[in-house]
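Have a close read of the entry that follows and walk me through the local backbone shapes. See right below:
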Amino acid sequence: MRWWGSASPSWASSSSGSDTTTLRSAPWRFFRRHAREHGLGELALGERLRRARRRSDSRQPLRAALETFDRLGARIWADRARTELAASGETARSRDPYASEQLTPQELQVALVVAQGATNKEAAAALFLSPKTIETHLGRVYRKLDVRSRTELARLLASQGALAELAV
């Protein structure tokens, strides 16, 4: 087989086991490189739009870049995209592995009491708060954890072991 250069690439000329491994990992390397380049392009576009005082237009490419870099584990580039997003007026939270780390202490207390089956009035009495305060905290908890019901909240907290720790 003849290649453009004077010699063929090493992976094309041999059939040893290490070369097979190289061939199998080639698509992943291509994907990572392509995804990184796409993320860098989105980041550059977002930076350019923000510097042109088009802050709201810059947020979508910056969000896309942040998501790409988070998925790839490129922490430095993700931090840069997060900084640009903050400069555009939007905040992007770091992705925490556990829901309980995303909540304030008061929101976590409310979430735990409600996840055990308490109504807003019962939770308010147990925590010495008003039912309206419980409702406000619960709304924030739903938004932060991306859940839509008390049942989903209870399942999420149970899967993370938060309810088991409370029972002990």
